[in-house]
Amino acid sequence: MTLLKLKDQSTLFGFVWTFLNPLAIVTILFIFFRLRIGPQVEHYAVFLLIGIIQYTHFSNSTSAAMHVLVAMRQLTGNTIFPKEILILSSVLSSVLELVLSMVICLLFALFTGLRPSWPLLLLPLVLLQQVLMVFWVSLCLSGLYIFIRDIDHIYHVFLRVLLFTTPIFYDLSFLGDGLARQIALLNPLTHLILYSRQLIISGTIFPLSGFALFTLANCILIILSLMIFRKAEPSFAEHI
Amino acid sequence: MDGSVRVRKLDKIFSIRRARPTTFKMIKSLLRGDRGAAEKFFALKDINLEIIAGEKLGIVGNNGSGKTTLLKVLAGLYRPDRGRVEVSGRMAFLAGLGIGMIDDLSVERNVFLYGTIYGLEIETIRERVQEIIDWAELQDFSRAKLKTLSSGMRTRLAFSTVRHIEADIFLLDEALTTGDKNFKKKCEEYFQSQKDSRATYLVSTHDLEFVGQFCRRTLWLHKGKIRALGDTDKVLKLYQESRA
Q1: Using the beta-carbon criterion (under 8 Å), do A2 and B102 form an inter-chain contact?
Q2: Distance between CA atoms of B48 and B58, rounded to whole angstroms?
Q3: At CB < 8 A and 24+ separation, what contacts does B209-213 make?
Q4: Mean pLDDT within B118-134
Q5: Which of A193, A134, A138, A120 is nearest to A163 (CA)?
Q6: d(CA B52, CA B169)
Q7: pLDDT at residue B178 in the model
Q8: How far apart are the first and last CA of chain A?
Q9: Apex CA B12: angle with CA B8 and CA B14, to 5°?
């Protein structure tokens, strides 16, 4: 909460900046792709907004969390409390942004004529999975960043690639049945965006077995990342 | 969990580098298998130490003698390159005062933040926050942002908070305070009250007067090696003679 309160506190629009960036991207993508992709996708504006919100959250929170240990080098190098708490607090500080963005998205969906149905109640579970995924990715990135500073640049290139290989402004069917589709399906963010779209736009429930498998993989990856992070922790102070 | 510390044949080696190596250079040296090619020096060499629960040990030595490194190895912040470290009990490591405090938060919020970093329960802080602010003599500033405080006031606030840390072993690295006469007296009273406590203290400092008053035994480190270990008066005398 402390990080959240401090964020943007001295800027003119404060917390509103959080929403202006994705809104600008959505507007540009909508203008450019509405005529090409829009006609093939129902409620294209909402479709686009869901993708951008989830991608922006993933991109912003993992990028911020990657730098936390180095930015707070005094804490990392001179205190003995568990350092994963720094990562967790960074990840949690972006949760409110994700939730508020989704609320705005839902209001926008209502405005465009979509009616909520009971499967929408599962949306918090999808968002929880997203936060868990951000947590384990952040644990890996922040630990690696201490030893290899190039990770920052490599990750930014990766995020650009992710923006285009995740079905954010196009539908999965746009990729056909070839390798591109297989690559997109290997990306966990694709699944989370598809889950949200199904709940908000189609108003239907996604296959629960697939979601359970996703949850299990997320949990295993969190445990593994924590184990590796804790193993590397005694080397952080020396390399920071 | 009694507060004892045992160190056996401890070595800590650092590499001397002019600049952080690029990732390309790191990969190249890894592939060549010349990881050990960088110039090395022993920050700690063959350290053997046994500290019983409740003991107050002073650590003295010139800058670069290994005092901080020793405390950081004991705290688990540095990995030993050789030897064993056995620590029994809950530890608190204090390197400087006020680390983790945030300028843009109020004095009161900083007490919560700082206390949490050092393991105090939120409920405990809630109960004691007023006492902490009062002890630091900052009653009129509890809602002021930290950045409006002088460095002396910040130090008072930090010290006032750390008095409440509950630990079996305290590792203090130059965390002793200087300030106005009144505050210094309060600090001395606090440490006097700790002298017979059950907590173990390892205090690294250049304040030899403090070591003389607070510690029964003292360790003198010189270039990473133990130069002397024993009765504080004797060790301090040797140390001071070497500097004369």
Answers
A1: yes
A2: 15
A3: B210/B58, B210/B176, B211/B58, B211/B60, B211/B236, B212/B236, B213/B188
A4: 94
A5: A193
A6: 10
A7: 64
A8: 26
A9: 175
User: Which pLDDT band, with edges at 50, 70 and 90, does B35 fall under?
Assistant: low
Report yes or no for ipTM above 0.85.
no
Instruction: Count Cα atoms within 13 angstroms, Cβ side, for B11.
Output: 9
SS3 content of chain A, % helix, strand, coil (to 5): 80, 0, 20
pLDDT tens per residue across span A184-224? 999 999 999 999 999 999 999 999 999 999 999 999 999 99
A118 touches B at CB < 8 Å: no
Query: Partners of A182 in the beta sheet?
Result: none
Q: Which of A17-31, B108-122, B224-238 has the lowest mean pLDDT?
A: A17-31
List alpha helices for A112-147, DSSP H.
Answer: 123-147
Is any Cβ of chain A less than 8 angstroms from the Cβ of B152? Answer: no
pLDDT in tens, B88-122: 999 999 988 888 899 999 999 999 999 999 989 99
pLDDT of residue B38: 67
Query: B109 — contact with chain A (CB < 8 Å)?
Result: yes
Which chain A residue's Cα is nearest to B112? Answer: A2
Cross-strand partners of B93: B171
In whole angstroms, give the CA distance from residue A67 to residue A18: 19
Look up residue B49 and give its amino acid: L
Alpha carbons B139 and B119: distance in angstroms, whole number: 24
In the block, tokens 């190596």 appear at B21
pLDDT at position A33 is: 82
Q: What is the average pLDDT across A147-158?
A: 94
Residue B211 touches chain A, beta carbons under 8 Å: no
Please judge whether A2 and B76 are an interchain contact, meaning their C-beta atoms are less than 8 angstroms apart. Answer: no
| Among chain B residues, CA nearest to A240 | B20
